[in-house]
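Example 3.2
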Amino acid sequence: MSELVTGEAVVLGLRPARLPSRGLAVLVDLAVAWGTYIVVSLVLLGSMSSLDSAALAAASVAAFVLVQVGIPIVVETLSHGRSLGKLICGLRVVREDGGPIRFRHALVRGAMGALEIVLTMGVVASIASLVSARGRRVGDVFAGTLVVRERVPAEEMWAELPAPPPWLAAETGALDLSRVPDRWWLTVRQYLGRMAQLDPQAGGAMAGRLAEDLRGFTGVGMPAEVHPAAYLAAVVGERQAREARRAFGASWDAPAAGAPAARAADAPAVAPGTAASADSGRWAAPGAGVSGAGSAASGPAGPAAGRPDGTSGATGRPSRTGFAPPA
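Structure, written as tokens:
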């Protein structure tokens, strides 16, 4: 993995392409280019047979430059860094800051490629790629570009996170999430959605920074024995569960992301047909069950008042029993 830093000080976890994959892509491109050049040369010989040898030589040189230099430049410019060989091998040419290349980058790479790949049979390009820490040839150095891998093998993808401990649900349920801004939730959701596409080292560092930001909002640090990404997923799941309970009622107690499935199964459901009443904003005390419509559950004398975010007022932990039925 090569850490590239953008102008905004953002570290990019790009995987530079090495000599074997780049060599295979170049072989495909050269095979297509030489095949095209042979066809164009035959057409020129057939259509310009009446001209003298000097004109034929000039046309042959022009065709060589067009096929070996001009067409690759146009293809890389229009495809934003993907020739046919790179497309097959899952490679792409990008700028050093990770952005897409433009015509000037493709022009420099194409002009230098004619010297270090075509005229020297790839010897100069191979030596430069082996010496470079990021596998760049001379054309990449002059153009300020880098060839990266777009398709990452499955074994190099983000490893599956271990199952969170059972007590993590209680830890996230006790958090006060009222001061967490919406922009942080959006950032975490985008991170979790693209986590598998990130380099493990860069993705782990990003998860740690997001967990540290959460500690600043809530005042509670992340447990040391929990992976930062698993902790973020559990917090997002807890927030979604609270929003669902506020929107749909206490009968909704979906498990948080990464939390044990038994968390929702242990919560008794509201009896079918129970109508909403004035007590719909109050939570039943922990341990109080529901026996049926219109009947009170056995247990404590009455439901305990709860917080609007779905946590009990006494313990600060989320209730598990739902709404108390009307007496």
